[in-house]
Amino acid sequence: LPGALWRLYLVQLMIHDDPSTAALTYERGRAALDTADALIAGAPVPASPDELVTLVDTILRGLFRGDFAVALDRAAAFCRVQAAGATYLADDYDATESDRSAAFTTRALRLSDYASDLSACAALWRRESLT
C-alpha cells in the first residue's frame, strides 16, 4: 500500500511539475496506442496541460472516495499512455537531440514500471491482499 501511494504521488508530481511535457507525452501516446488505456485514464482528446493536471488530481481524489482499485487502474492506464508517448518521443528526438531522447527513454521506463506496479496493486486490493 505505501508503495502504491508513493507511485501515485510521483505521477501527480510529474504532471504538476511540467504539465506541458505531460500533455505532449500523453497526446503522443494516445495517438499511437491501439488500446483502451486512454479511455480508462479518462483524459479529453486532445488534453491540454491544465486538463491533465485536473485529470491526475481527479484520479487521486478517487482514492479517497472508496474507489481505490478503480483509481489504481486509471492511474496505471494513464502511465501506460504516458510511457508509450515518451517512447515515441525518444525515437523522434534520437537523431537530433540525444540527451532529450535519453530523458524520454528513462521517463518511459519509469512510467512503464509504475503502470505494472499500479495494476498489480489494483488486483491485490480487489483480493483484499494489499498491505
Explain what you see.
The chain has one domain (2-126). The chain is 80% helix and 0% strand. It is built from six helices and no strands. Helix 1 runs antiparallel to helix 4 (49-63), helix 2 crosses helix 4 (49-63) and helix 4 (49-63) runs antiparallel to helix 5 (68-93). The longest helix is centred in the C-terminal third of the chain and has 29 residues, at 98-126. The mean pLDDT is 89.
Query: What's the total number of strands?
Result: 0
Please report the number of helical segments. 6
Question: Structural class, please?
Answer: mainly alpha
Please provide the ordered H/E string of secondary-structure elements: HHHHHH
Q: Strand content of the residues, in percent? A: under 5%
Helicity, in percent? over 70%
The geometry reads as globular
Q: Biggest sheet: strands, sense, closure?
A: none
Average of per-residue pLDDT values: 89
Element layout with pairings:
Elements: H1 2-17, H2 19-32, H3 37-41, H4 49-63, H5 68-93, H6 98-126
Helix pairs in contact: 1-2, 1-4, 1-6, 2-4, 2-5, 4-5, 5-6
Provide tags for this entry.
131 residues; mainly alpha; 6 helices; globular
In short:
With 131 residues, this protein is an all-alpha fold. Helix content is 80%, strand content 0%. Helix 2 packs across helix 4 (49-63).
